[in-house]
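Fold it.
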Amino acid sequence: MRFPAGEPPIHTEVGQRRGGLIEFLGAEGTGAYGPYIPLRRGRYVARLRFRAGWASGGAAVLDVSADVGETRIASLPFEAARLAETGMAVELPFEAEADLAGVEIRLFCRPGFTGALEAVEIDPAPEDLSDNACWSRALARHGCSGDGGPSVQGTPDRDRRDIKPWHVASTLDS
């Protein structure tokens, strides 16, 4: 499923909508959130696609939550300067252990984060990740784990503006 960044149901608090994109010019806060969709039990990949040619920089966090932000499923810090190495996309594999409601993909921008978001995507995980050993390797490759690494399962959030997942994700604090 692909959701263009410049259209509902993707929202922003600190970005600027321009030309079908959400542009980030260095402000700290919630850069993107939505689309608030149901997902059936299964394995998925959340993806943020950024516009090539932009002077992307700074740090941010890709986050997946359910229940309209109340339950954090997974979180992954990333550096915008490395987007070109990954095809201008950031991917986060995650697992819905039960059917989910109100699923949103969120982008939390640290001060100085710049870039232009083109789309938010949620796709079923590829078939080659169907067995647990392959899934574990994919999580490790993305810097995620189910054992207290940068991924977080079932953490309640009170208010979107209060969420600072990079405090959970120690890889950015070093």
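Residues 145-174 have pLDDT under 50 and may be disordered.
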